[in-house]
Amino acid sequence: MSKRIEAIVKPDLLIWARESAGFTKEDAAHKLGVKLQKLEDWEEGVSRPTIKQLRKLGKQYKRPIAVFYLDEKPIDFQPLRDFRRIIGSVGFQQPVQLNFEIRQAIYRRQVALNLIEDLYGEPPGFEHEISITDDPEKVGSKIRNILKVDAEKQKKGTGGKYGAFNLWRTAIESVGVLVFQSTGVDVTEMRGFSINEFSLPVIVLNSGDTPNGRIFTLLHEFAHIMLKEGGICDLNEGYDLPPEKRRIEIFCNHVAGAALIPKQELLNEDVVIRKTDKNSWTDDELSTLAKQFKVSEEVVLRRLLIYGLTTNSFYETKRREFRKRYEMISKEPRRGFA
Q1: d(CA 209, CA 86)
Q2: How crowded is the C-beta side of 317, counted as CA atoms within 13 Å?
Q3: What's the total number of domains in the chain?
Q4: Are 204 and 192 in contact (CB under 8 A)?
Q5: Do 133 and 187 belong to one domain?
Q6: How confident is the model at residue 76 (pLDDT cuts 50, 70, 90)?
Q7: Which tens digits make up the pLDDT trace of 28-75?
Q8: What is the pLDDT of residue 93?
Q9: Domain match, 167 and 253 both
């Protein structure tokens, strides 16, 4: 009969690992296949897990087993405050896998930071800054200038369906922002998040999202970084956020739209010039404009609404249609890379 070998670990570290992973006691006990009382005994120091059980804890909490043998709790990431998910998602509780993706992004940033410091010395800080009181249309134009993306370059869009996404991603990376892609979180839980740091701020996108969806999220999160406001942010401006947070989300959505579709560029399009009834737009018209700017039809329609070229009623009706269509597309399997 094999001897039961206990793991000599501190209860505080067991509690920290569970909580930082986003597990309740009940969820953790269920995942580990132990009774709740046993888990509580481990965390209260009444008893200890075996080495085998500790390995299982590490696997569920996504922590190396060595972490449990530290003298004290490590300084961990602070949970990001804002939420960016698919419109219509309800009842949000930050999932375990999302916590892991945030930790991974922080770790990867630190690796990149160490590498740059070893090779080139201290990296420059990200100094582009905006204010929530700025005109979002002017901020959109400012972003295009910072990223050196003009109308010709944007509309050319070579490289297949990912060409436009790669254009914007490369442009943002060129000004000192790390852009990663996540594969482990459903798009209903996270479309993207940003980590605001002076050197090497980070944007993480969900590879399960559509290319156009990722482009909008990329610009939205870039606006957050310029505001010095990182977070996990919500596409739905009506989501139950505190007033100031909702104001920031609306602002970042407006900025992203303005960066992707400048006012004059839109008004100069033949489809817009020829349009007589500007209150309603056919799917073909919206699709033509979307293809020109390499964005979604919803982004186009939102810009038309901002300029008084459609009605709120028509926008909301089409938005519901877009949502249903998007939900169907988002179920299709996709692959993404860092």
Answers
A1: 10
A2: 10
A3: 3
A4: yes
A5: yes
A6: low
A7: 898 888 999 999 999 898 998 988 888 888 888 878 777 787 777 776
A8: 52
A9: yes
Quote the CA–CA distance of 56 and 33 in Å, as a whole number: 10
Q: Per-residue pLDDT averaged across 113-137, rounded?
A: 91
CB 290 within 8 A of CB 261: no
Instruction: For 222-248, write each residue's pLDDT tens digit.
Output: 999 999 887 665 555 555 667 888 888
The residue type found at 336 is G
Listed in order, strand segments (DSSP E) in 147-223 are 178-182, 192-195, 202-206
pLDDT tier at 261 (50, 70, 90 boundaries)? very high
Angstrom distance (rounded) from CA 140 to CA 255: 5
Query: Same domain for 177 and 113?
Result: yes
Co-location of 179 and 298 in the same domain:
no
Instruction: Please report where in the chains the tokens 């009834």 appear, as a residue.
Output: 277
Range of the domain at 319: 263-329
Kind and range of the H or E run holding 231? strand 231-232
**Inter-CA distances, 314 with 231, 253, 262, 270, 307, Å:** 31, 19, 22, 21, 14
Residue 110 is which amino acid? Q
Q: Which has more pLDDT, 122 or 149?
A: 149
* Residues 82/102, Cβ–Cβ less than 8 Å: no
Report the predicted TM-score, pTM, of the whole model to 2 decimal places: 0.75
| Tokens (6 digits) for 220 | 């939205």
The CA distance from 36 to 258, in Å, is 52
Q: Does residue 291 fall inside a structural domain?
A: yes
